Amino acid sequence: MALIELKNLSKSFQIVKRQEGFWNTVKSLVSREYDTKQALKEINLSIREGELVGYIGPNGAGKSTTIKLLAGILTPTSGSVQVAGRVPYRQRKENARDIGVVFGQRSQLYWDLPMRDTFDLYRKMYKIDDAVFRRNVDFYIELLAMQEFLDRPVRQLSLGQKMRADLAVALLHDPKIVYLDEPTIGLDVIAKSRIRSFIREVNKEKGTTVILTTHDMDDIEQICNRIVLINQGSILYDGALTEFKHTFSPGHLLSVELAGDQPLVLADERLVLLHEEGPRKQILFREDRIPAGEAVTLLTRHNTVVDLQLKEPNIEDIIKEIYK
Length: 324
Prior knowledge:
Blueprint: E1 4-16, H1 22-30, E2 34-47, E3 52-56, H2 63-71, E4 78-83, H3 92-98, E5 99-103, H4 115-126, H5 130-143, H6 159-170, E6 177-181, H7 189-206, E7 209-213, H8 217-223, E8 226-231, E9 234-240, H9 241-248, E10 252-258, E11 272-277, E12 280-285, H10 292-302, E13 305-311, H11 315-323
Parallel strand pairs: 3-7, 3-8, 5-6, 6-7
Antiparallel strand pairs: 1-2, 1-4, 8-9, 10-12, 10-13, 11-12
Organism: Paenibacillus aurantius
InterPro entries: AAA+_ATPase, ABC_transporter-like_ATP-bd, ABC_transporter-like_CS, ABC_transporter_ATP-binding, P-loop_NTPase
GO molecular function: ATP binding; ATP hydrolysis activity
């Protein structure tokens, strides 16, 4: 049985028409005209317990609207939404106990409290059992390396430390699902790596279902095994990340530099010259037609190669092309 189930889910908003001029402004106080914006268009989505799902799309695609519907903040215009067998907007309190939410640009921490006191505050809010509370606090402190700033007020923490603290608080009550919105935004390379490892470890140890929305495709590649691509309120793709690359990628790219001014010999129609600039050649091939090892062997057998670089399909480049 699916943990999250969306069926023919649509959401529209009424937006007031703004007209220029003083008298038009006065008239609008009495009688207003509206435009209808359809944020979601008959979305069908099913997510099983324990999945790591990347929910991606450009700004205004409908990602935030979907998360707000799942959290019970919004009600659908039509269709149905269920989370853990509940209707979120009808059973908000029960739904809130099963979810955790982290927004990369909005902290849920109390700035003047140290993390020790913040943990205790959330224990009381969620009525967490003492044994569960102690086990989770110890687990997250160790996994997120939080020992050094536990007694420091939140306002004195770095951006990376605040994000680690937000993650720990969101997961303190053992939610079945956690919604992560840009959890690594603005972080340095080391902090990003720590956050990504933590999310994978929590999923592995506790079976927590993760819905990740982000514009950082490295987050998607390193965390998720499934992606849902949405644009203009409709789902364009829903499936495995590996299958997405296989289906939409133009192929692997081989960049080779030849010795001297010798002409390039491809020797196989499965290898396509994409671009050349002097001795440097860009060659495209699809691995489902010719393995990378065979492509390299053919090139080096028929050409004197000084330098060779293999570039695998990049998910960010693929998505850019889809948007275009």
